Amino acid sequence: MMLHTCFLLLAVGTVTCDVYLHNPRGSNNRLNERSANRKNGNRVFDSQNNNRGGYNVGDLTDKAAQSDESKQYQMKYFQSGSTSGKTHLTLEWTNQHGCGGNENSDPHKQNCNIVFQYMCQKTGKANGDKDRIRDGTLPNTQNYQAISNSKETATSQTNRKASSVVTEKVLQETFDWYDKCYVRERNKGLFTADQKLKKNRLGYSSAIYTRQNPNGNRRGYECPEERDYHPYWHPTPWKDIAVLAENKTMCSHYQDKSFNVQPYHECVEYFSTNVRKPYSRWNNETNCKKNGGVWTEFYNFLEKAPKYTGQQSCEGASTANIKYKWALPHDSTDGKTKQCLVMLDKPECHEAPWSRSNHLGNGRMGEANNYTWQLPYFPSGNTYNCVVRVRYNISTDDYDPYHTNATHNKNIVKGVRSPVQQNPYVEIGAGHSPLRLAINTAQFGRTFQDRSHVFVLRPRPSDINDATIYNLNVRGKRGNIVQVYPAVEYDFFPTNLKMKENDLVHIQWTGSNSHNNGAPAGDGQAGDAGEGTPGTDRNNMVQIQDMSENYPVPFEQSGMWNAEIKWIYHNDKSMSAKDLAVNMATSGYYKCAACGGADSAEQRTKVNNLLNNAPASYEGAVLKFKKGKYLYACTRNNNFTNRSQKGTITVQ
Length: 652
What we know:
Layout: E1 19-23, E2 58-59, E3 72-73, E4 76-78, E5 87-95, E6 97-99, E7 111-122, H1 154-164, H2 175-183, H3 224-228, E8 239-245, H4 251-256, E9 264-268, H5 285-290, E10 294-298, E11 303-304, H6 311-316, E12 324-327, E13 339-342, E14 348-351, E15 355-357, E16 370-374, E17 384-395, E18 425-426, E19 435-436, E20 446-451, E21 455-458, E22 469-475, H7 481-484, E23 491-493, E24 496-499, E25 504-509, E26 542-544, E27 564-568, H8 577-585, E28 618-624, E29 628-633, E30 646-651
């Protein structure tokens, strides 16, 4: 039997909502719903969050994309440069049940950690490709036709996949990933308390069954066992960004065991045609070899480097900043052929920031908790479609999370009593009047999750390769604080950006045309209070003189837009300060004030004064500001007594 201690996922009670990603915008399984509630909580992943959370996928224009995927907008971030130039993207989230603190001087009501991960896929896959990462245009969960015979052929497996995957539906993990999870035996060394885990169609309990998911419910093509435990003990498609740990003494464990730097094994088997099976039942070396499989070591990677075709040329290309390795990638189709891989760094790790229990709000410093991700550099120069996820794991001290395993599971025959039991009764010294505790052992040790929509990581133009780039975005959606909860209202983010004189800022935002927050609204309030056309997100940027004022500065008195344009979405970097000011103030509706052409303020149909005909998303510009402090606001959403949408950029 494989024994494996549970390092993360220990929680309390029957809570119903918990972690929400605000930048980049977390979907919470939403697509483009006009309702406050999401339509399908099983769309792509198991969030265990409230149905009301999340943000719609972005729209490219002033109209809802609906069934046209090309009219969706994916946020586009520049990768870090090849030398000293780093790109910073600040991730912001709220978690309900608290986090941070330490046992000795600042004890909290629970233990927790937070894990950030991402997956990427090189752009260029055809729309009809079954494995293409996409947001999709239908809110339904992908289909899955399960294997029914362990002797199936390669053709049968291919047909199951072809008949299951719908190209109009969202896809992050692939069909083959879930197929692997469905077939592979679960780790029987894990603590499952008194939960009764079911079996698959092949007659045994596999990795789709966990203590948190004993019935094997499916959400997209996510593997429940991989979702519930970190670091996972088999290869996964996810790359670790950071672990915000329960205490800093755990950091060496999370970093050393990360699949970024630690290769992991899985059993490789083949069909009779010598084609590799995408799955194997066997989860350990002994059973793998005993049943004719090959216990094989696989590596994670940033990307592949196919121009290097041998170990010497591959590993000889390594530099101080880039490590190449000749190894077997985790997505190997034959389980044999090594390739040149660009290796990953170990994840960053430090103690989790403090947040208050039972409160989806700010940390101790008065701002929502956040983590700044240094975006990767891809040496190939390729563009990638990516997704980021946050996993929020909470536990109590009712049992030892590091040393409680399968030997502590309820077993009446052996006389073993689980350290926690379902809704137990406790005596309080009042005779036959016990009190019942609200304990669900499937949740006593629990993981919550949110994921972004698809975004793009693209290479930098050569003339900004060495500069530091900060991303300045907009969080929130239409509605007042009650209507949007547990999402948030509009604000610029980072709200107060500080940078050095030669640093650059990429200003960009996205929004939806279907954030109506209508019925059903679940346990909250429906409605989309705000300016302009109902359901529409709009943003812009104008300079203001003082944070306590709400009128913008006339262009003639402004100095913010004398910035140097290093890159702009329409490629005309020679535009004037006035042109830039008009472009930002109209969310790109006008390319310029007086530069000629159909998109200029001179010739284009007049922009609506509430930006109703402006696009919901703005690809933006990369700017180099002069020294000083710049204050700015959004004219449509900054509504005194209702909400403030203002920000500052300080160049030191």
